[in-house]
Design brief:
mainly alpha; 2 strands
């Protein structure tokens, strides 16, 4: 299974539509999830850590004034060591957009983990909801149970395929000390590549036109607004009770994906 899914993964780079079709029929979302975790770690070391240290936690020196001792000398004769410097950090404006983008993005390691979880809990369901608005294919509950597993597998594979070259390029350029603009350009390139691959995934799964697929991808990114609410998942009690409550629904959604793949294998046999 690992060898076959690896071949499917690299097929995305030169035959994305065919690769998405095979991922739906024979791919594994567990393999995609493991691949996303691996690629996100490489991306953190290769690109986002430098962006975080440059823009989001830029070091600044904050002067700390000390009380001056009582003396008859004029202020100009007081020693220069009357102030201390304390190292702090703050966010710097991003190129072109300034501070407008900070409510929507973050380069910290915790935000990368939240983004990965957000793919399954926020991005995929919202994408299903939006594409169903453009191309009504039934109630949202039916669409969620029927197509969630297929779209999740394609989304995970597409995310990993879009970010792997950027992560490797960032690691290769690390010794050359690339400028922050270069790192930011690589980061944006990964996002646009992911959007393009998601267009291919929507075309394959739902058979929609390119216009509908592009419109859906352009709207589904708003799921980042709700990623900050995923912090409650850090509680193990919330995870346990949530899994206990939704265990049947989760099992039905994933079993639908396995049944779909099993039916495909039955037809081939």
């Amino acid at each position: 299974m690992i060898a076959y899914n690896t071949r499917l993964f690299f097929t995305i780079y030169y035959r994305p539509l065919a690769a998405m079709s095979e991922i739906i029929d024979k791919g594994s979302w567990l393999y995609g999830a493991a691949l996303v975790v691996l690629v996100s770690a490489l991306l953190q070391f290769g690109v986002t850590t430098r962006l975080y240290n440059t823009f989001e936690a830029a070091p600044v020196v904050v002067p700390q004034h000390r009380a001056q001792p009582a003396t008859k000398n004029p202020p100009s004769e007081i020693a220069d060591d009357s102030t201390d410097a304390e190292l702090s950090s703050r966010r710097l404006p991003l190129p072109v957009v300034g501070n407008l983008a900070w409510p929507f993005i973050s380069f910290s390691s915790t935000s990368v983990i939240v983004s990965i979880v957000g793919l399954g809990l926020l991005y995929v369901p919202l994408t299903l909801f939006v594409v169903n608005l453009f191309e009504h294919q039934g109630s949202f509950g039916v669409i969620l149970q029927r197509d969630y597993g297929a779209l999740l597998a394609c989304t995970l594979m597409a995310w990993a395929a879009a970010h792997l070259p950027v992560a490797l390029a960032g690691l290769a350029l690390d010794r050359l000390r690339p400028s922050p603009i270069d790192d930011l350009a690589l980061w944006l390139l990964a996002k646009f590549t992911f959007g393009a691959l998601m267009v291919c995934a929507l075309r394959t799964i739902f058979g929609v036109s390119y216009g509908t697929a592009i419109s859906t991808v352009s709207l589904s990114w708003v799921s980042v607004f709700f990623e900050s609410s995923l912090g409650w998942l850090a509680s193990p009690f919330i995870i346990y009770f949530g899994y206990s409550y939704f265990r049947t629904d989760i099992g039905d959604i994933l079993s639908s994906f396995r049944t779909r793949q099993g039916f495909r294998r039955y037809l081939e046999a």
